[in-house]
Automatic annotation (TrEMBL):
Residues 5-266 form the Pyruvate carboxyltransferase domain. Its EC number is 2.3.3.13. GO terms for biological process: L-leucine biosynthetic process. Keywords: Acyltransferase, Amino-acid biosynthesis, Branched-chain amino acid biosynthesis, Leucine biosynthesis, Manganese, Transferase. InterPro entries: 2-IPM_HCS-like, AIPM/Hcit_synth_CS, Aldolase_TIM, LeuA/HCS_post-cat, PYR_CT. Belongs to the alpha-IPM synthase/homocitrate synthase family. LeuA type 1 subfamily. It comes from Spirosoma agri. This is 2-isopropylmalate synthase. PROSITE patterns: AIPM_HOMOCIT_SYNTH_1 (PS00815), AIPM_HOMOCIT_SYNTH_2 (PS00816), PYR_CT (PS50991). SUPFAM superfamilies: Aldolase. Pathway: Amino-acid biosynthesis; L-leucine biosynthesis; L-leucine from 3-methyl-2-oxobutanoate: step 1/4.
Length: 379
């Protein structure tokens, strides 16, 4: 089995479903080009049948981006698939991503259907999509809550119909990592033609487990991950691209890799945040403002002695210029001495002790002490 994990980015489709985060076509092209530069394998550019704007975006991204596969979403409905196929005419490498619900909850309550009819509709959708593109991905919506035997039957059927990728999504963020990993393993053990397709995973973050579930899926054989920058997306969001990429890069014992240039993660995160007007939480893994910031005196002392005491990755590896020492009332003498020396001030221990006492008084009032405050303090 290949040890490469393909990165399928759906920032411009699922990520854009966040209320208030819609982008114009021109803005989408800017983001798509940055995703291409970063090394994303597949860009899901939109849902063409949903609106003229989305149709146009898929067309224009297909014309503007050449290296990644450009993917268009559709339901397992002929009109949706036709719209996706038309929108992808200009793509160098196009993919239609079609699918239907796989859990009994969806089959009964969303489609008012039966497992038998869902199988028929899924097979027909894949076959129709193949008339437009060779590369067809099928999504078994709500696979996280689907019956395993039926999920395996559905997966085998769509692969026989021509699907080149099968997406086993935890659409509602329902699964625990062990549970989801076993679901992917079951697919590999019970689908006789599984070697003819790539198994993909798309995890939502409703229980805060999207990245953990995605890694569990990959460790059990999935080789495509569907992610967004900053983890944006429907409800609580999707798996974060940056978290999966860096987890695979840091945990070398897994023997897995991506083609992502990780030094582009922080700049692209900022671009997406600004364009979608959606701030990244300060403590967000990898790209948050505090991801490489140290304010505890114990941590600052250990970090200044040797960065690996408290950092498992180099900030340069993700495009962050440098780590930061944040001076607060929790900071110790080592951090204060370090910042003062950066400003050109060196003191003997008794003098530094006196400055430190005054520093704590200032930090209690101002919460965070910056370089201007330090200049005031030493004067």
């Amino acid at each position: 089995m290949s040890q490469r994990v393909y990165i399928f980015d759906t920032t411009l489709r699922d990520g854009e479903q966040v209320p208030g985060c819609q982008l114009t076509t021109d803005e989408k092209i800017v983001v798509a080009k940055e995703l291409e530069r970063m090394g994303v394998d597949v860009i899901e550019a939109g849902f063409p049948i949903s609106s003229p704007g989305d149709f146009k975006s898929v067309v224009e991204i297909s014309k503007s981006v050449t290296e990644p596969t450009i993917c268009a979403l559709s339901r397992a409905v002929k009109g949706d698939i036709d719209a996706a196929g038309e929108a992808l005419k200009w793509a160098k490498r196009g993919r239609i991503h079609t699918g239907i619900g796989s859990s009994d909850i969806h089959i009964r309550n969303k489609f008012g259907s039966t497992r038998e009819k869902i199988l028929e509709q899924a097979i027909a959708a894949v076959k129709h999509a193949k008339t437009y593109v060779e590369d067809v991905e099928f999504y078994a919506e709500d696979a996280g809550r689907a019956d395993l035997a039926f999920l395996a039957q559905l997966t085998e059927a769509v692969i026989n119909a021509g699907a080149t990728v099968v997406n086993i999504p935890d659409t509602t963020g329902y699964c625990l990592p062990d549970e989801y990993g076993k679901k992917i393993a079951y697919i590999y053990e019970h689908v006789t033609n599984v070697h003819k397709a790539v198994i993909s995973i798309h995890c939502h973050n409703d229980l805060g487990l999207a990245t953990a579930n995605t890694l569990a899926g990959v460790m059990n054989g999935a080789r495509q991950v569907e992610v967004t920058m900053n983890g944006i997306g429907e409800r609580a969001g999707n798996t974060s691209l940056e978290e999966v990429v860096m987890a695979l890069k840091i945990k070398k014992e897994l023997g897995l890799h991506t083609n992502i240039d990780s030094t582009r993660l922080f700049p692209v995160s900022n671009l997406v945040s600004q364009m979608m007007r959606m701030p990244v939480q300060a403590n967000k893994a990898i790209v948050g403002r505090n991801a490489f910031a140290h304010s505890s005196g114990i941590h600052q002392d250990g970090f200044l002695k040797h960065s690996e005491n408290y950092e498992i990755m180099n900030p340069h590896d993700v495009g962050v210029p440098k780590s930061s020492i944040v001076l607060t009332a929790r900071s110790g003498r080592h951090a204060l001495k370090h910042r003062l020396e950066l400003l050109g001030y060196r003191y003997d221990k008794p003098t530094l002790d006196g400055i430190y006492t005054r520093f704590l008084d200032m930090a209690d009032i101002r919460k965070e002490v910056n370089d201007k405050d330090l200049m005031e303090l030493v004067r």
